[in-house]
Each structure stands twice: as C-alpha cells, then as structure tokens.
C-alpha cells in the first residue's frame, strides 16, 4: 500500500480570469473549490488511477466533517489526527489568456507539540502493510522542520521506500535521510543550490551530486521545458507534450502518483519516468485541482518522448 502524508491540508479556491490585471478590477469567469494539499492530491490521483493507498496527516476540527465526506466520496481510506482550527484556504488565480496560474497560499493554523507527538503515535499503527511513504507539501506552524527527515528515517528502518516533494528547510533536512525518490522543480532545486543553474548540464551535475549522497531517483520538473530524471547510472529527459493546458495546479502531485504506480508495478527506470511525466501531463488537461485520470495516463503514455542523455 502507498501511504500519503498531508500535515497542512487546505481548500484550494481557483478563480479563472480571462486576463489578470494586477492592481485593477478583474471579472471572474469561473470559481471552484477543492479539498487539497500535496499529499491529498497524490491520494486523489492514485484513486483515479486505481491504486490502493491511504491518506494520513492532520485534520482540523472546524472542517473535520468536510474532510471526512471528501475521503468517503473518493473512496480513499484515511486516518488523520484532529487538531484545533480550520483548514487553510489557498487562492489560485488562473489567467485563461496566458495559461498562467498565480497562487496565494496561506501558512495554516498552528498546531501544538502534543499534536505532533500524537501524529507520530498514529503513524506507528500505519507502518504495517505500507510499501511506499509519500511525504510532501508544507507543514503548519508548530511542526518541526525536521519532521519529514524523521518520518523518512522511521520508514527506512521498516524497509519502506520513501518519496519526497518539499521545499526549503523541509527539503534540505529531509535529504539528509536519503529518501528513495525526490521530486523538486527547477526553482526549488535552485533555491537549495543557492543560485540559478546556467544550463541543463550544470543542473544535471548538481543532481548527480545529490544522488551520490544516497538518493535513488531524482526527478526534476522543468515546467514548460519538460522534466529530467536521474539515477546513479542514467540521465533521461522528457520533452513537453503539446496540449491545451486547462490548469497547472496539482501536476507535480500527479507526477508523484505516476511514479508511485510505476514503482509498485516494478517497472524500469525509464518507465517510472514515463509514467510520472504522463500523469503530470494528464493533470494539465483539467481545470482547478482536478488531477490525472486513468484514461489520461493511457493516452499520454503514447505521447511522452524520453531521451537518454547518456547515449
């Protein structure tokens, strides 16, 4: 089973505008709200793909019923520790003319040290039967920045493969635990590196240095330029598939779901990358925080072009 962790779940309010006017009055074309958060998004995508998984993390008391109804509706098992407060609300403004998303993400409500301890106690009941642990996204105030590192170390002790998608200190500290699969985007990797990469060659060189520290797979999302996939022996690049982008929110989470599916299937390195890119591309076909569907994956697998840069 795949276990996803969402410590800072949210409501994504996506607003579509024909042409975003900064500082001006914007007429809204469409608005939608989705229960979200990176770990939750991975669970949604896995459910869409027909992959057995379970969601865990923090639930917030004022919206506990809403979160429960959501997981029941998508038929996804869940086990959350409830804390005081309400779900944070993130506002996403999608410019339909430029196909560009602007995001305004709330930090979330503070949780206590006792809540963090209770979450670790909850996790002790979830390790059995877990093959892959997905830790990603932000954490609310009050949660130590080392929490992903601690979770990865605990999972590795039990022989569980770990997938990491995080930023800043959460990423830097978690890398010390040598997660199995890491999925930063270019901007996140540059922030970790401390400067912009001058070209793809420099990015690959830095990526290889991370692999030498014990990471098995490094998948770097390049947005409109596609993606890179590095192992100790190989380096692959995927060109972007030409589609009409309907929304970009959650594409990275679909990428993680696709990689998890391929790893569960025991597929080759190249096919793990192919599934990841196909799912990310499939997610772009949907507005708001709607994610890749099984038929999207099947269609995009035929269109993803993988180049072996080592040849």
TrEMBL record:
For whether the record's keyword set contains ATP-binding, the answer is yes
GO biological process entries? carbohydrate catabolic process; D-tagatose 6-phosphate catabolic process; lactose metabolic process; small molecule metabolic process
The enzyme class is transferase
**Pathway listed for it?**
Carbohydrate metabolism; D-tagatose 6-phosphate degradation; D-glyceraldehyde 3-phosphate and glycerone phosphate from D-tagatose 6-phosphate: step 1/2
Domain Carbohydrate kinase PfkB: from-to ranges: 7-293
* UniProt keyword list: ATP-binding, Kinase, Lactose metabolism, Nucleotide-binding, Transferase
Q: Which GO terms describe its cellular component?
A: cytosol
Q: Superkingdom of the source?
A: Bacteria
- Which catalytic reaction applies to this protein? D-tagatofuranose 6-phosphate + ATP = D-tagatofuranose 1,6-bisphosphate + ADP + H(+)
Q: Which residues form a coiled coil?
A: none
Pfam families documented for this protein: PfkB
Query: What Gene Ontology molecular function terms does this protein carry?
Result: 1-phosphofructokinase activity; ATP binding; tagatose-6-phosphate kinase activity
Among InterPro entries, the record links this protein to: 1-PFruKinase, PfkB_dom, Ribokinase-like, Tagatose/fructose_Pkinase
Enumerate the SUPFAM superfamilies for this protein.
Answer: Ribokinase-like
Enzyme nomenclature, EC number: 2.7.1.144
Q: What is stated as this protein's family in its record?
A: Belongs to the carbohydrate kinase pfkB family. Belongs to the carbohydrate kinase PfkB family. LacC subfamily.
Know the name of this protein? Tagatose-6-phosphate kinase
- Specify the taxonomic lineage: Bacteria, Bacillati, Bacillota, Clostridia, Lachnospirales
The gene for this chain is pfkB
């Amino acid at each position: 089973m795949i276990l996803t962790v969402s410590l800072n779940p949210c409501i994504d309010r996506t607003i579509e505008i024909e042409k975003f006017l900064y500082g001006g009055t914007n007429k809204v074309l469409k608005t939608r709200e989705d229960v979200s958060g990176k770990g939750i998004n991975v669970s949604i995508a896995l459910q869409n793909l027909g992959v057995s998984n379970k969601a865990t993390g923090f639930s917030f008391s004022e919206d506990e019923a809403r979160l429960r109804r959501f997981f029941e509706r998508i038929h996804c098992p869940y086990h959350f520790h409830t804390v005081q407060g309400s779900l944070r609300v993130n506002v996403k403004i999608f410019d339909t003319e430029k196909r560009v998303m602007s995001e305004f993400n709330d930090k979330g409500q503070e949780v206590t040290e006792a809540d963090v301890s209770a979450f670790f106690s909850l996790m002790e009941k979830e390790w059995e039967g877990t093959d892959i642990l997905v830790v990603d996204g932000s954490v609310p105030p009050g949660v130590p920045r080392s929490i992903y590192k601690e979770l990865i170390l605990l999972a590795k002790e039990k022989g569980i493969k770990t997938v990491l998608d995080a930023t800043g200190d959460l990423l830097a500290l978690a890398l010390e635990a040598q997660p199995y699969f890491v999925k930063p985007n270019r901007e996140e990797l540059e922030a970790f590196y401390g400067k912009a990469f001058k070209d793809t060659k420099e990015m690959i060189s830095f990526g290889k240095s991370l692999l030498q520290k014990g990471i098995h797979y490094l998948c770097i999302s390049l947005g409109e330029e596609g993606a890179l996939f590095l192992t100790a022996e190989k380096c692959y690049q995927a060109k972007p598939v030409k589609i009409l982008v309907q929304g970009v929110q959650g594409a990275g989470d679909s990428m993680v779901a696709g990689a998890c599916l391929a790893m569960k299937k025991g597929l080759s390195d190249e096919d793990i990358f192919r599934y990841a890119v196909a799912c990310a591309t499939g997610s772009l076909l949907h507005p708001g925080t709607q994610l890749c569907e099984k038929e999207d994956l099947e269609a995009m697998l035929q269109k993803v072009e993988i180049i072996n840069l080592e040849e």
